[in-house]
Request: fold
Amino acid sequence: MAGVPLVRIILYLPYNAAPRGQWIVRRNADLAGQFATREDAFRHARQLLAAIRAQPGHHADLKIEDENGNWRYSETLNEAVTGA
Reply:
């Protein structure tokens, strides 16, 4: 893809231990959404990833925080949703 600069975006899904807390999605450092459930946050992240990756010159990754505060890249969108 000559002449098109690569734009790298990372979506973050922080863990939320609070029973009534909001699940958030961040796009780089910016808030991309707040959701009542983890599943809703993952659904939104999948939609964002697909939209970003569809744009020429754009690359997107998803990082998920676990209950211990460790971050990992999701290998696939299905893994992000199911935890498999």
About this structure: The first helix runs from residue 38 to 53. Confidence is low (pLDDT under 50) at residues 80-84. Residues 51 and 82 are 21 Å apart (CA to CA).
